[in-house]
Design a protein that fits this description.
Layout: E1 2-3, H1 10-17, E2 25-26, E3 29-37, E4 42-49, E5 52-55, E6 61-74, E7 84-87, E8 90-98, E9 103-114, E10 128-138, E11 144-155, E12 166-177, E13 182-187, E14 190-193, E15 202-216, E16 219-232
Antiparallel strand pairs: 1-2, 3-4, 4-6, 5-6, 6-7, 6-8, 8-9, 9-10, 10-11, 11-12, 12-13, 12-14, 13-15, 14-15, 15-16
């Protein structure tokens, strides 16, 4: 769901939704179904609740907050173990950028990992902190929206269950928008665990999908369906 000006076209709305730190209030729900997870090659489901909220600042700078709260359905990893459903760890980003940017938009700030998990299988009980950076090209009249999200999170303690961690994200984004609000999209969420062996560090997908922005009454809604294959992944990570 989006909170925007009513006079915007569906194509303009679609382009705004493709900016992961847009200057509008939005509440994305992103459901990810992962196949071939764990040693038993079962199916895992993660529903990410991802509110984006711009905060008022002075005339020269803007502040955007972005939250990712996962609800996880975890299959059993070995015989006799129960499957579980619960919360994962929350990632909360605060990003600062100059006001009135056009064309190429950048934001930088910090991301913190909050141990909100309800089961140690869903996360790590140590807090984390690190830098975050977003660069997106969004220009009026140009159907292309593209950019990248970067962050890296280090644990700030290691005495709680899960131990220390050092993990990163490199997420290139590219979209092509058609008139009327339909678009093609690819958002490649490359993740890395710097603490593991080099052969087990990276998860790197390929793929993409299609989306459409429409209205229910005056309320804009963005719907999207994508499929990805992990060409590189740790042994027990999903394909």
């Amino acid at each position: 769901m989006l909170t925007v000006r009513a006079e915007l076209s569906n194509q303009e709305l679609a382009k705004m939704t493709q900016n992961p730190v847009s200057e509008m209030i939005s509440l994305p729900f992103q459901n990810n179904t992962d196949f071939d997870t764990g040693p038993r090659k079962e199916t895992k489901n993660i529903l990410n609740i991802q509110p984006i909220i711009p905060l008022t600042s002075n005339g020269d700078w803007k502040i955007i907050t972005r939250t990712v709260l996962p609800i996880i359905s975890q299959p059993r990893e070995w015989r006799g173990q129960d499957s579980r459903v619960g919360l994962g760890d929350t990632q909360f980003s605060v990003l600062l950028s100059p006001a009135n940017q056009e064309g190429l938009i950048w934001r930088m700030g910090a991301v913190t990992q909050i141990p909100t998990n309800t089961d140690i299988r869903f996360g790590n009980d140590n807090w984390g902190l690190g830098p975050a950076f977003v660069m997106i090209h969004v220009e009026k009249g140009d159907p292309w929206v593209y950019g990248v999200i970067l962050n890296n999170i280090w644990s700030v303690s290691n005495d709680r269950p899960g131990g220390s961690y050092n993990s990163g994200l490199v997420q290139p984004i590219i979209n092509y928008n058609f008139p009327g609000g339909t678009y093609l999209t690819s958002s490649l969420m490359n993740t890395v665990d710097w603490k593991t062996d080099s052969s087990q560090r990276w998860t790197a997908p390929i793929g993409g999908g299609i989306g459409h922005v429409f209205r229910i009454g005056k309320q804009p809604v963005n719907a999207q369906l994508s499929a990805y294959y992990n060409v590189v992944h740790p042994d027990d990570a999903p394909s």
